[in-house]
């Protein structure tokens, strides 16, 4: 898709207020002060033992704005848990516990209970304990009826079982696990698209079977149990959680130097929600691929033998998985 279609300018993530390059530069600077920063989760050796603690933290971004508009608060906590536990499972870590931070101008107990119920549900889906949290009432800081969330997950993995991408070689296979929708990234751009489209969140999603609001608020898939099960049977070399940065920025994070990926864009069907977002926002392919998950929320880099096993299980109906590409010599991600 070209930058302009007639007189309608193409929307972009940066134009919507989010600069991925600035975020990358900040991580680069922080890494100078705190070496080891930059992975999906941080590893900390557990005493003199044989395990690492793996920690991750995240929020749900401006998806919260849609929660306020739709009144859908009971699943946003699932998103919160998902964003952190999906990050730490990329190292092969089993989540142990989760902490949350809930901040608001004036505490609405009933609303907060709905949010926390979602967090409890998310912890159940990932087999981890909700260990504690903080509720902060901050008058005049947030708009009436609004709140912000942060989450923190800690897991554990044996040192000799860490998934770190070091053994990835050209010819390894990229397996994609489907997403439920936009998940919890890219909503600053999504909200611009909704505003331009003229549709209400109560209107039916074009090509879909739900309202636009329901499609956008679908909770992030928690991949923990599925991914740990696949890891347990061998052949998984690297895992990328497809969040902000999309395929283009997240997949290369797991590769050794000198390796890249080719993605076959016809390997799975682009869900109606993403088709609508691209068409309504006149968004270029490259921008879509660097902002959204496009229907694939987790990518595993596996040996060809493991790929055959995983795809065989998928064919048998055990779960849904797609062979979306291969590892190649070179740098970055190319699309065919």
Automatic annotation (TrEMBL):
For this protein, the record's PANTHER family field holds: TRIFUNCTIONAL PURINE BIOSYNTHETIC PROTEIN ADENOSINE-3, TRIFUNCTIONAL PURINE BIOSYNTHETIC PROTEIN ADENOSINE-3-RELATED
NCBIfam families (UniProt xref): purM
Any single GO CC term annotated in Swiss-Prot or TrEMBL for this entry: cytosol
Give the organism's phylogenetic lineage: Eukaryota, Viridiplantae, Streptophyta, Embryophyta, Tracheophyta
* GO BP field: 'de novo' IMP biosynthetic process; adenine biosynthetic process; purine nucleotide biosynthetic process
What family does the Swiss-Prot or TrEMBL record give for this protein? Answer: Belongs to the AIR synthase family.
Listed HAMAP family:
AIRS
Q: In which pathway does it act?
A: Purine metabolism; IMP biosynthesis via de novo pathway; 5-amino-1-(5-phospho-D-ribosyl)imidazole from N(2)-formyl-N(1)-(5-phospho-D-ribosyl)glycinamide: step 2/2
Q: Which UniProt keywords apply?
A: ATP-binding, Ligase, Nucleotide-binding
In its UniProt entry, the species of origin is given as: Brassica campestris (Field mustard)
Q: Has the keyword Transport been applied to this entry?
A: no
Q: Outline the extent of the PurM-like C-terminal domain.
A: 170-334
Name of the protein: phosphoribosylformylglycinamidine cyclo-ligase
- Name one matching Pfam family: AIRS_C
Residue spans crossing the bilayer: none
Could you say which EC number(s) this protein's record lists?
A: 6.3.3.1
Q: Where is the PurM-like N-terminal domain?
A: 49-157
């Amino acid at each position: 898709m070209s930058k302009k279609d007639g007189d309608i300018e193409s929307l972009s993530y940066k134009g919507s207020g989010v600069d991925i390059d600035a975020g990358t530069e900040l991580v680069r600077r922080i890494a100078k002060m705190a070496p080891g920063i930059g992975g999906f989760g941080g590893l900390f050796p557990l005493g003199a033992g044989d395990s690492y603690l793996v920690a991750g933290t995240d929020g749900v971004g401006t998806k919260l704005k849609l929660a306020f508009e739709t009144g859908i608060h009971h699943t946003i906590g699932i998103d919160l848990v998902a964003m952190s536990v999906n990050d730490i499972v990329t190292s092969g870590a089993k989540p142990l516990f989760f902490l949350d931070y809930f901040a608001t101008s004036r505490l609405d107990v009933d609303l907060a209970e709905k949010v926390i119920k979602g967090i409890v549900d998310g912890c159940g889906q990932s087999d981890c304990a909700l260990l504690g949290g903080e509720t902060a009432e901050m008058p005049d800081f947030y708009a009436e009826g609004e709140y912000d969330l942060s989450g923190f997950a800690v897991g554990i993995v044996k040192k000799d079982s860490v998934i770190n991408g070091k053994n990835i070689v050209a010819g390894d296979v990229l397996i994609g696990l489907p997403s439920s929708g936009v998940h919890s990234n890219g909503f600053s751009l999504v909200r611009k698209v909704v505003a331009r489209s003229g549709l209400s969140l109560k209107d039916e999603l074009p090509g879909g079977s739900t309202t636009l609001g329901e499609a956008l608020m679908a909770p992030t898939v928690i991949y923990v149990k599925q991914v740990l099960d696949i890891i347990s049977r061998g052949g998984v070399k690297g895992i990328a959680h497809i969040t902000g940065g999309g395929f283009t920025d997240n997949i290369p994070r797991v590769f050794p130097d000198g390796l890249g990926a080719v993605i076959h864009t016809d390997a799975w069907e682009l869900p109606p929600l993403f088709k609508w977002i691209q068409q309504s926002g006149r968004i270029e392919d490259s921008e879509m691929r660097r902002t959204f998950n496009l229907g694939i929320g987790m990518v595993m880099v596996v040996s060809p033998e493991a790929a055959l096993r995983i795809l065989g299980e998928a064919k048998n109906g055990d779960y849904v998985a797609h062979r979306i590409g291969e590892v190649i010599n070179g740098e970055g991600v190319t699309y065919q």
